[in-house]
Amino acid sequence: MASDLQNGQLTTMGLLRPKTNIDRRSCKRVVPMKVICLGLCRTGTSSLRAALFELGLNDVYHMFSVTTENPLDAELWKEAYDAKYKGIGKPYGKEEFDALLGHCMATTDFPGISFAPELLAAYPDAKVILTVRDNGDVWYDSVFNTIWTVSNFLRAPPKTLTQRLVQAILPKPHFNVFEHTPLGNFPVEGRQWYDDWNEDIRTRAKGREFLEFNVKQGWGPLCEFLGVEQPKAKFPRVNDSASFKETHNNDLLRVGAKVVAALSVLGLAVWLAKK
């Protein structure tokens, strides 16, 4: 990882761990949970993950962990969401999070932040980091132009055959991390969500070792907070809006190729049926 950070740039794909297929249901904690990062998405959570890797924390849980690296985790997260928000099954506590996150020394981004109170209770000795943007308007624009736009497209009722094929082919998680957030009505509620969320985390973190951190601040505040030496490499910059769009454009190009293939097969079938 260190060699990848010499110029401070790291592609999203360079941040990902090797893909695995581990059922963590019977796993145990094997490393201490040292840091709980509770900033909302689009506050530099990917950059923070890369920075924590560079500082020797391994592993660091992130949305990538379940969507790309170990998709089997989705089954457990769905259980946790169902228990918390729908009253179905046993609520997740330390035992369950030790199984799901027992290989991690830190966690950041969704889905973990949906369980901020539970994680804080399960790991009372862990330090807490709240990642923030320059202000709420900057954060709002970032989410609106990335996550909300993609989410809105995927949730919208398909109006054309091509859109139906795209939605059918795109991989879907077994749970929706944004179902119980204001993202569905983001243009109206999104700006207030940022302020309310940050204030709630500040309140919950009172009395604990706590850092409110903007990744623009670089290594200094983070290394001082964690009590570690500052690396020589530049602070990583990962998954900014441009990188997000490039990644998802590439995904759509791959899906587009499948759609073209599907339409070609459909056209051939129609032609054969008419013969």
From TrEMBL:
InterPro entries: P-loop_NTPase, Sulfotransfer_4
Positions in coiled-coil regions: none
Domain of life, per lineage: Eukaryota
Record field: transmembrane: none
PANTHER family: P-LOOP CONTAINING NUCLEOSIDE TRIPHOSPHATE HYDROLASE PROTEIN, P-LOOP CONTAINING NUCLEOTIDE TRIPHOSPHATE HYDROLASE
Protein name: P-loop containing nucleoside triphosphate hydrolase
